[in-house]
Amino acid sequence: MPVLEILTKQFPEKIIETHDFRGDETALIQKDALLLIMKFLKTDIRLDFNMLMDLTAVDYLWMGKKPRFEVVYHLYSLALKHRLRIKVPIEQKDALVDSIVSLWPAANWYEREVWDMFGIRFQNHPDLKRILLYEGFDGHPLRKDYPINKRQPLIGPKN
Amino acid sequence: MMSGNESFVTSRLNEMIGWARKYSLFQYPFVTACCGLEYMAVASGHHDIDRFGAGLPRFSPRQSDVLMVVGTISHKMAPVLKRIYEQMCEPKWVVAFGVCTCTGGFYDNYATVQGIDTIIPVDVYIPGCPPRPENVMDGLMKLQEKIQHQKQEV
Predict the structure, then answer these.
(1) Is there a contact between A155 and B118 if contact means CB atoms under 8 Å apart?
(2) Residues 20..59 of B with a Cβ closer than 8 Å to A: which?
(3) How big is chain A by its Cα radius of gyration, in Å?
(4) Which CATH number does the domain housing residue A97 bear?
(5) Where is the NADH:ubiquinone oxidoreductase 30kDa subunit domain (chain A) (predicted)?
(6) What does the alpha-carbon distance between residue A72 and residue A110 come to, in Å, rounded to a whole number?
(7) Computed from CA positions of residues B22, B26, B31, B36, in that sequence, does the dihedral angle turn out positive or negative?
(8) CA distance B154 to chain A (A)
(9) B76 and A150 in contact by Cβ < 8 A?
(10) Has residue A148 been placed in a domain?
(11) Is B129 marked within a binding site?
């Protein structure tokens, strides 16, 4: 049974949308069910997604999409050799998602990077601080409304 | 100059010291990016900067006179560069090598220092992306000129 079919059967009311472009399967899910679905994807024997390939975010500000952000998870099963992309839409004023470090420890630094670059917070993350930039950096530079030539208070020159 | 058995040279102390200092430039190469390759070309035998007394790079800031900042400086590198500068003994000079160190170059973004003169004082700017060896030697001669004519702190 294809991955998306198993998933939609298990959580029919938590899946917002799915699509399958040339075998590239994607599911948009609701934020409150993230941990539940991720745990199912990792532990179910038919799916067995034991590897988190990537975790990132997208800012759709200029594309006018609502809600503004999406957190994107790429999963892979080393045993069954299949992949799945999970997307979680996030509102700007409630930019908070459950951390999945408890399921995949690899998510630790990815989530710190997403916090650093997009300002999306992760609930129950063990150590959510900036990873690429430094303490005292003002703003989150991969947000589309971050001014391209903004100067930082610790470095200057002043704006 | 010569009179009988005695010989002497007339000069001012300031110029004498300047002359000595400008031909004894021990550089600290602070190399972070692609300009480093052009720096290596300058330091190689073909262009021979030993002619300017600047042939010996020192890899400790405490033993060097000229800080050559070669390549893009990111925000995270900025405190390191400042610390290296502060570790150097007086007299000391700074050369901004390449357009990234001069102004930030085309890296007008959140991560790059927009010219190292926002952090430390700079004596000579060598623009270019990267500057050619001839350009660097021109900058080196400009620095020598500057050293020759400045007030020498002893």
Answers:
(1) yes
(2) none
(3) 17
(4) 3.30.460.80
(5) 29-151
(6) 11
(7) positive
(8) 33
(9) no
(10) no
(11) yes
8 A C-beta contact, residue B75 and residue B104 = no
Interface test with A, best of B80, B110, B118 (most A CBs within 10 A): B110
pLDDT in tens, chain B (154 residues): 455 677 777 778 888 889 999 999 999 999 998 999 999 898 888 888 888 888 888 889 999 999 999 999 998 899 999 999 999 998 899 999 999 999 988 888 888 888 898 889 999 999 999 999 999 999 999 999 999 988 888 7
Q: Do A141 and B113 touch (CB under 8 A)?
A: no
- Give yes or no for B113 touching A (CB within 8 A): yes
Residue B90 CA to residue B151 CA, distance in Å, equals 13
Quick check: B120 contacting A, CB < 8 Å?
Answer: no
**In the structure encoding, which two tokens stand for residue B152, read together?**
């020498």
Backbone dihedral angles phi then psi of residue A76, each to the nearest 5 degrees = -145, 145
CB-based contact B26:B50 (threshold 8 Å): no
Which tokens go with B102?
């001069």
Nearest-CB residue to A157 (from B78, B109, B118): B118
List the domains of chain B with CATH numbers: 28-149 (3.40.50.12280)
Under an 8 A CB cutoff, do A133 and B75 touch? yes
User: Does residue A49 sit within a domain?
Assistant: yes
- Assess if residue A159 is contained within a domain: no
Q: How many domains does chain A have?
A: 1
- Within an 8 Å CB–CB cutoff, is residue B14 touching chain A? no
Complex-level ipTM: 0.71
B102 is in an annotated binding site: no
Give backbone dihedrals phi and psi of A97, rounded to 5 degrees, phi first: -130, 160
**Number of neighbouring beta carbons within 10 Å of residue B46:** 8
Q: CA B71 from chain center: how many Å?
A: 14
Give the range of the structural domain holding residue A116, as residue numbers without chain letter.
Answer: 3-123
Q: Which residues pair with A40 in a beta bridge?
A: none
Are the CB atoms for B53 and B25 separated by under 8 Å?
Answer: yes
